[in-house]
Design goal:
By secondary structure, this protein is of the alpha/beta class. It has helices spanning 3-30, 35-44, 52-65, 68-83, 99-123, 132-144, 149-178, 193-204, 220-230, 249-257, 272-275, 278-285, 287-291, 305-308, 360-375, 380-388, 416-427, 447-459, 474-482, 496-505, and strands at residues 124-125, 128-129, 183-188, 210-212, 237-241, 261-264, 298-301, 317-320, 327-335, 338-344, 350-355, 398-401, 405-410, 432-437, 464-468, 490-493, 512-517. Strand 1 (124-125) and strand 2 (128-129) form a beta hairpin.
Length: 524
């Protein structure tokens, strides 16, 4: 074996490893840089490793041939495998080359380089490589473990990342401590927390200078980024959305921002893959309650069955449609043009509100924001114009009217309660009702059960159902068939583009009402 064939093998391995590493780095980023989640994803998506069969066959051939020809075959196989991992130009959320990603890529490259150099030096004797078969096996092993290189690099970088994150967290805490007149309001819940956060932003502005975490910045580093980049000494209130996928996540956020008041919008079966049980979900959401100071107010959705079991844990303010709540909504009038409802406060004050938002779920979320704002010193009367200003939160039952079609965009995510609410909203409209969905995820052992129930519920509302992805939507399909839903009203699409093309091709005399329920990220 000569130097030229060695260089060819090395180049083929490097090119392929680069493509593979970037591909799996993309998935690792989408999996929130969590090694356990990444490994679970690898198990679920074992088909992604199929191209490595080419490498195995080429490695076997190279060992048998035991010459430069075999090495060239293996190098070609490496490059061919790498082509399967080229960046997806149609990715919904491409890989973002953050500082953390750069550090992991550098570490992965260094690790690969060190192992390669050691292997070459070990086998090099007087300028000539000995034992071609061993070199072939070493490079084959390096190649097939490259998908896990990002995990190794993440492990190596763990002390560095921890130190960097802690620096940013400490800086955010310092900034918060300097804002001595600031009131922090934490908002969490299995669903509804983002909507309530944005509604609070509009309502509280009737009296206060308000900062809210943007978009879905509800993780520790997302919150820290908001504080370090946007919080000013002139802000009166900081509304902090708090997300969680594991027990302890809400407490971690509370230890950073130290909320004075808190809102728990709902508790339900979401992220059960990581939470495992509903009890763990309840425990985690109420970490917010446990973190509030004695004088702090805890606002709870008193209509939520899982929240009701926790009402005696501490003094709280409840809101909901039930008359026994501190803030109750009644006389609801819902149409496709909007919603009107009346609210009674604990002091007996009553006002009627109108909003262009539709649905019972929106009333409950708006009511939660009204309760907080009223307790913060804004009268119900002064909140009326603020409620009229409320806009749909993007991708959360957002209405998009395009003349011949009306899109109900609920693509941000989906869960059992959210899917029921979405179908209730769809039922409010006159026209041909079309559901487009890939189903619900991260529901653990209950995923098939909840998706099948989703299919049953959809059968009672929808005139046509487009399922995105055959494998992911089998349970929804089964639920539809449980209710004898006609086959000619179901279409199983390859992907979202195929689904939308099918919807556009459907011809009806009536207006098409299209519900987009969930949109799975690239790692599904």
């Amino acid at each position: 074996m000569d130097i030229i064939s060695t260089v060819v093998l090395l180049c083929g391995s490097i090119i392929s490893t680069c493509f593979i590493t970037l591909s799996f780095m993309h998935m690792f980023q989408l999996n929130s840089y969590k090694p356990k989640v990444q490994l679970a994803w690898c198990r679920k998506n074992s088909r992604r490793f199929a191209p490595f069969i080419i490498d195995a066959a080429a490695c076997a051939a190279a060992i048998l041939i035991n010459s430069n020809t075999g090495i060239f075959i293996l190098a070609g196989a490496f490059i061919l495998t790498g082509l399967f991992f080229l960046p997806n130009k149609k990715a919904k959320k491409p890989l973002v080359i953050t500082a953390r990603v750069k550090r992991m890529l550098v570490s992965a490259c260094l690790l690969y380089a060190v192992v390669s150099v050691i292997a070459l030096l070990f086998l090099l004797k007087e300028g000539t490589l000995v034992n071609v078969r061993i070199l072939t096996i070493i490079y084959f092993i390096l190649h097939i473990i490259s998908p896990f290189g990002v995990l190794i690099a993440n492990f190596v970088n763990k002390p560095i990342e921890k130190a960097i994150n802690q620096h940013y967290i400490n800086d955010a805490k310092r900034i918060l401590a300097q804002c001595d007149r600031l009131t922090v309001i934490g908002v969490t819940g299995s669903y509804g927390k983002t909507s309530v956060k944005f509604y609070l932003n509009t309502l509280l502005r009737a009296k206060y200078n308000v900062l809210v975490t943007p978009e879905s910045y509800n993780t520790p580093m997302g919150v820290v980024k908001t504080v370090r980049g946007s919080l000013k000494s002139t802000h009166d209130i900081f509304v902090c959305e708090m997300g969680a996928k594991n027990v302890g996540d809400i407490k971690e956020l509370c230890d950073i921002v130290h909320p004075v008041h808190g809102v728990i919008t709902s508790v339900g079966p979401q992220h059960l893959e990581s939470f495992r049980t509903l009890d763990n979900v309840i425990k985690t959401k109420f970490e917010l309650a446990d973190s509030l100071p004695g004088e702090g107010m805890l606002f709870l959705n008193g209509d939520d069955e899982n929240i009701k079991t926790q009402l005696d844990r501490r003094a709280n303010v409840t809101y909901g449609l039930g008359e026994n709540n501190d803030y109750s909504a009644f006389d609801l009038s819902v149409s496709e043009k909007g919603t009107s409802f009346s609210v009674k406060a604990p002091d007996g004050e009553t006002e009627t509100f109108t909003t262009k938002l539709i649905g019972r779920h929106n009333v409950i979320n708006i009511l939660g924001a009204i309760a907080v704002s009223n307790k913060m010193g804004i009268s119900l009367h002064d909140l009326k114009p603020q409620v009229r200003k409320l806009e749909n939160v993007p991708h959360r039952l957002q209405l998009i009217d395009r003349g011949e079609t009306l899109i109900i965009d609920d693509a941000y995510n989906s869960n059992p309660n959210g899917s029921r609410v979405a179908l209730e909203t769809l039922a409010l409209f006159n026209g041909k009702k079309i559901l487009v969905t890939p189903g619900m995820i991260e529901l653990g052992d209950k995923e098939d059960e909840y998706n099948r129930e989703f299919g049953r519920n959809a059968s009672a509302v929808c005139d046509y159902v487009v399922l995105v992805g055959e494998k992911q939507t089998k349970s929804i399909h089964a639920g539809l068939k449980d209710r004898d839903y006609p086959d000619d009203k179901i279409y199983v699409a390859r992907d979202l583009n195929d689904a939308l093309a099918k919807v556009r091709a459907l011809q009806y005399e009536e207006k098409k009402i299209i519900l987009l329920e969930n949109d799975l990220p690239d790692n599904y």
